[in-house]
Amino acid sequence: MSNVVVVRVDEPILESNKKIASQLRELFASRGIHVFEFLGSPGSGKTALIEKLIECYPGDLSEIAYIGGDVASTLDTERILRHGVKGVQVNTGGACHLEAIHIRKALRELDIDGVRVLFIENVGNLICPIYFDLGSSMRILIVSVTEGEDKFIKHPVTVMNCDVIVINKYDLVEVMEVDVERMISDARRINPKAPIVLTSAKTNYGIDNLAKILGLM
Ligand SMILES: Nc1nc2c(ncn2[C@@H]2O[C@H](COP(=O)(O)OP(=O)(O)O)[C@@H](O)[C@H]2O)c(=O)[nH]1
Ligand SMILES: [Mg+2]
């Protein structure tokens, strides 16, 4: 029998994250803000889809705010700000996911008075973000057809714990020779509750459907 001492660091980190996330959730609820977290691999189309949802938002753009997570750069927030909504960038400096404490810090720089919709774009990663609750109302998983049709099977924990599943870059489905029906049935088997939406941020296919599912239309 081993007498090696094991120091667990994962539980305290996750516990403290959970506490901050629930404080954030209370804050958002008290202000009537709907918070949508977008997560998925780098390049899956998270920023592009948020841009499309902003473009078709029926209300005043002052009601929308954005927090973008990336290891480095301000590129995504620059893209979002061009649409006339407010936003801040969180640079993790290396961490592969956002944590609730990052959102709390970001809110010090973001005026959320009058905001109804907050988009949080997580760092591009299919694995770690799902373990860190950010206090969002809905988690939207983005997988594009260019990533290969096996992604849902390879990342069941992420699929299981999201509220909406988006298969993006549908305009490329033929050229990629992807069996999208297989993707849909894999996703449905792992998470029977989450609606599955096919989208293209290039052609606008399915954007209105996604907006309706998120209650933005
Ligand atoms: N063809 C096609 N390209 C897309 C689509 N969505 C995003 N892209 C492109 O994919 C690249 C990555 O998109 P981006 O939104 O930056 O991905 P993110 O890293 O998940 O935020 C960009 O060149 C986008 O123009 C789509 O539906 N179809
Ligand atoms: Mg992005």
Secondary structure elements and pairings:
Blueprint (H helix, E strand, L loop, with lengths): L9 H22 L2 E7 L5 H10 L8 E7 L4 H7 L4 E6 L8 H9 L8 E5 L16 E7 L6 H4 L1 H5 L3 E5 L11 H11 L5 E3 L8 H7 L4
Parallel strand pairs: 1-4, 1-5, 2-3, 2-4, 5-6, 6-7
Helix pairs in contact: 1-4
The structure holds guanosine-5'-diphosphate (GDP) and magnesium ion.
Magnesium ion (MG) binds next to helix 2.
Spatial strand sequence of the major β-sheet: 3-2-4-1-5-6-7
Please state the structural category.
Answer: alpha/beta
Helix content: 25-40%
* Main β-sheet description: 7 strands, parallel
Hetero compounds: guanosine-5'-diphosphate, magnesium ion
Describe this structure in words.
- The protein has a single domain, classed as P-loop containing nucleotide triphosphate hydrolases (Rossmann fold), CATH 3.40.50.300.
- The chain is built from eight helices and seven strands, in the order αβαβαβαββααβαβα.
- With 217 residues, it is α/β, with parallel strands linked by helices.
- 35% of the residues lie in helices and 18% in strands.
- It has a seven-stranded parallel sheet with strand order 3-2-4-1-5-6-7, with helices on both faces.
- The relative contact order is 0.18.
- The structure holds guanosine-5'-diphosphate and magnesium ion (MG).
- The site of magnesium ion (MG) has 4 residues, from helix 2.
